[in-house]
Amino acid sequence: MSRFTGRRVASVLAGAGALVLIVAVPAQAASYFRGYEGSDYAGVGADRRWVEVCDMEKDGNGVYATFIVRGSTGGNTVGDGNGSAAGCGNRTFSGDVLGFSICEDQPVGNSSCRTYTL
Question: Which pTM does this prediction carry?
Fold first, then answer.
């Protein structure tokens, strides 16, 4: 193999490797959506029906999220029932999740919340 052919093969292989990385990254990024309230978070799976809510702060404040679900009229709140211990609250809805508000209970006053639209 000549030096020119060797460089050409190396160039083609490098380009193919870069293309694989470019194509693979968006697929991974779109597989799960997570929204935060401080370090606490709510996540929606790629199917837009499976959700989780995780309390990541050892501050004694509970965390919950209310999800907007296509075809549902309410009852879409999920909390992390064990506080900041390992594990999260999760649920699978029968309709697609369109958005959610994640909230952290506060010792005084209203909960602090952030709203996300998918």
Answer: 0.73
